[in-house]
Design brief:
Elements: E1 17-19, E2 32-35, E3 41-47, E4 53-59, E5 62-69, E6 72-74, E7 84-99, E8 107-121, E9 129-137, E10 140-147, E11 155-161, E12 164-167, E13 171-175, E14 189-192, E15 198-199, E16 203-207, E17 212-218, E18 226-232, E19 235-240, E20 249-252, E21 255-256, E22 259-265, H1 268-272, H2 276-279, E23 295-300, H3 302-306, H4 321-334, E24 338-341, H5 370-379, E25 383-389, H6 394-411, E26 415-419, E27 427-430, E28 437-440, H7 445-460, E29 464-467, E30 483-486, H8 506-510, H9 541-550, E31 555-557, H10 562-565, H11 569-577, E32 582-591, E33 595-602, E34 608-614, E35 619-624, E36 634-641, E37 655-662, E38 667-672, E39 677-684
Parallel strand pairs: 23-24, 23-31, 24-25, 25-26, 26-29, 29-30
Antiparallel strand pairs: 1-7, 2-3, 3-4, 4-5, 5-12, 6-11, 7-8, 8-9, 9-10, 10-21, 10-22, 11-20, 12-19, 13-14, 13-16, 15-18, 16-17, 17-22, 18-19, 27-28, 32-33, 33-34, 34-39, 35-38, 36-37, 36-39
Helix pairs in contact: 4-5, 6-7
Length: 686
């Protein structure tokens, strides 16, 4: 729910009724079923012959998820796995239309049926109670555990879950390994489902019958993120990210776990045009957040990534007052709201990777005038974007957090990029005793707590957060709309470190995998198409423009040097005009890992933008304009791959420009080069 215009929110309809099964012997208890609103997805919840809770799912009459177990393994008592019976259940339904303060689309529809199943464990097994709430949509399902107050169980110390997903049909998966040293920054693998090992979510699958699935989670709060671990065949189970303590999660009752989610669709577009995780998060808790404005930015960043400048002080220091003024002037001239500055604060000297002990978040280096530059930017209608790199040391960061956010808020620095550069299990967190520290994982319970603390503290001072090396996105931007962006995948920076470091199919895969979790700060706009030592990108020039349509973020960077951007006036003009906030978005053509073309409508005008990205295979895609308003003519300014363009040679810079008039019902044949892309701006003709 957005508090910007509460009257636009439709009243939710909830129709509860009870279905209580009598206390018969286990074998006499019937299963409990529920269906999605259109009846295509049917859920069955039962207990098996070993009195273990199970769930299964069918779609359009075909088994999708075979009976799969539910439960917990505890560190300090009998496991909550066996000895359960169904004590009762309740059903409800909901219908709601709510407004996002910013996003891929302005309005989100939520139509679902719900089933709450109450499980009771036998006294011999511990006598605990465990509820599981399922929510069924026409395009997916989510479920979570709800642990009520109960005698003899005040605190749960969870070693792991036994939540299973036994995928009945065969198919193909796109995934990255979970628990590796560089977090989510992996190249996606494409394998058979039964060749997956342990994967981060979202993990995307295309079954042999064409059904598309995406496994993820929603509302990850005060809990460990999960990895999807294959146990046998196509049977998977959740495994929680590790903790410095024996238990991976410690929670006092009552509490709810995050939702375990599956998006389900007939095609790739059905996965993308899907708001399942957002709908499973709580409404906006921050109220009016119009102080955050979606926008584009430039930054003192690419030079550090390539090695031209340094974060550390010295003769090559990037974050100087003089250079920042030049970037502010460029931003004001070309319509960029933000200027990111990394390396402005004390603590970068020496080897900071993975410890960050010396970082100050309030003290500038001698050659950087933070208050003066904030004022200089403000006078030109530009805002500095702050930067807090922790080196993975949240003990040091949390000790300064309030003061740091207060400083930014007071200076009008209303967006901050945070960073957690460390190995996967290398986060330094406060311990129990003063001065004691512990090592935590990037996606463990302690980091879920930390990231939310940062977001809530920032909100007090009207600062938005763009987290790099983050915990994964699970739709919490609905509840905390100042959590505006994350990295959480292999971004543009890798292209600075080697030829074709991100292959041509990387971005067309991100669309259907990582991007299903939420906005990504990919940092597009490297128009030079080269990294350090002239290492080429697996991209044409047109693809760099298409990235602004394919990879959504409410904060979009033009990552190249400002001197380089100015040598591409037509492309810079497009980047300066393409919005970062949309009223509508839809995938109009694409397949997982191959290509993706979007149509998006500007939230603040009647303009449409169309574009996207391609893999290494040249193809011609026929695009329709059925989303345009009937009877209107639109002037389309088109940026497409030029004749002979390919990412493999210097022809990657070949680009063609075209202007034409289009109407609803027209068709346009778009040729996409290997590693190519395209972008269009459609303006209603006068």
């Amino acid at each position: 729910m957005s508090l910007l215009n509460p009257s636009l929110r439709a009243c939710a309809l909830v129709l509860p009724f009870a279905l209580v099964t009598p206390a018969f012997a286990q074998q006499d208890r019937p299963a409990v079923t529920a269906a999605s609103p259109d009846g295509s997805i049917v859920l069955t919840v039962a207990t098996d012959n070993d009195s273990r809770p199970t769930w299964s799912l069918s779609r359009k009459g075909k088994l999708l998820i075979a009976p799969s177990k539910l439960g917990f393994i505890l560190t300090d008592g009998l496991n909550m796995v066996r000895g359960f019976s169904i004590a009762g259940s309740d059903k409800a339904s909901g219908q709601e239309r709510w407004e996002q303060p910013w996003g891929e689309r302005r309005f989100v529809n939520d139509s679902h049926n719900e089933l709450l199943v109450r499980f009771q464990q036998s006294d011999v097994q511990g006598g605990r109670r465990m509820n599981v709430r399922f929510r069924l949509f026409d395009d997916g399902v989510g479920f979570r555990y709800e642990l009520p107050e109960q005698p003899g169980l005040k605190t749960m110390r969870i070693a792991d879950e036994t939540t299973e997903f036994d995928i009945a049909p065969a198919g193909t998966a796109w995934w990255i390994p979970g628990g590796e040293w560089n977090r989510y920054e992996q190249v996606y693998q494409k394998t058979a489902i039964d060749a997956v090992s342990t994967a981060h979510t979202p993990i995307t699958m295309r079954l042999d019958d064409g059904t598309h699935l995406s496994f993820h989670e929603a509302a990850l709060v005060d809990y460990a993120g999960y990895w999807l671990k294959r146990s046998d065949g196509r049977k998977f189970r959740t495994t929680l990210a590790p903790s410095s303590q024996a238990a991976r999660v410690i929670r006092d009752l009552p509490f709810n776990t995050p939702w375990r989610t599956i998006r389900i669709a007939d095609d790739a577009a059905g996965l993308v045009d899907n708001d399942l995780e957002l709908n499973l998060n709580e409404p906006n808790k921050l109220g009016d957040v119009r102080w955050f404005r979606p926008a584009k930015y430039i930054g003192i960043w690419w030079g550090m990534i390539r090695g031209d400048w340094s974060w550390a002080e010295g003769p090559n220091h990037g974050a100087t007052t003089a250079r920042t003024k030049r970037y502010i002037d460029f931003a004001a001239k070309h319509g960029f709201r933000g200027v990111l500055v990394e390396g402005w604060d004390k603590g970068w000297n020496g080897d900071w990777f993975g410890h960050g002990d010396d970082f100050s978040y309030t003290q500038s280096t001698p050659d950087f005038d933070l208050p003066g530059l904030a004022a200089y930017a403000r006078d030109k209608g530009v805002h500095l974007i702050g930067h807090h790199e922790t080196g993975g040391n949240i003990a040091n960061y949390e000790a300064q957090l309030d003061a740091a956010m207060r400083l930014y808020g007071g200076l009008g620095v209303d967006v901050v990029k945070t960073g957690y550069v460390a190995d996967a299990g290398g986060i330094i967190a406060p311990g129990e005793a003063p001065g004691e520290t512990r090592m935590e994982w990037h996606d463990g319970q302690r980091m879920a707590q930390h990231h939310l603390r940062v977001v809530e503290t920032a909100a007090k001072y009207h600062v938005a957060v763009n987290a790099h090396e983050p915990i994964k996105d699970t739709g919490l931007r609905r509840t905390y709309p100042n959590w505006v962006g994350r990295e959480g995948a292999r971004g543009m920076e890798y292209n600075a470190w080697g030829a074709f470091a991100n292959g041509p199919d990387h971005e067309p895969t991100l669309v259907y995998t990582r991007m299903l979790s939420g906005p990504m700060d990919f940092t597009p706009g490297v128009l030079s198409l080269e990294g350090a030592d002239h290492a080429p990108l697996a991209s044409t020039l047109a693809k760099q423009l298409g990235l602004y349509l394919a990879l959504y973020s409410p904060i979009q960077m033009a990552a190249d040097f400002i001197e380089t951007l100015e040598t591409f006036p037509k492309e810079l003009d497009f980047i300066s005009k393409v919005p970062a906030d949309w009223s509508e978005s839809r995938l109009i053509a694409g397949e997982v890992g191959d290509y993706a073309i979007f149509a998006r409508k500007d939230r603040n005008s009647e303009d449409w933008y169309v574009g996207g990205v391609n893999d290494a295979t040249a193809r011609t895609v026929t695009l329709g304009f059925d989303y345009l308003e009937p009877g209107k003519r639109y002037t389309a300014t088109i940026y497409r791959d030029g004749e002979g363009a390919t990412y493999l040679t210097d022809a990657r810079h070949e680009i063609a420009y075209e202007t034409r008039t289009v109407r609803k019902g027209d068709r346009y044949d778009l040729w996409l080069a290997p590693g190519g892309g395209a972008a269009m701006r459609l303006v209603p003709a006068k």
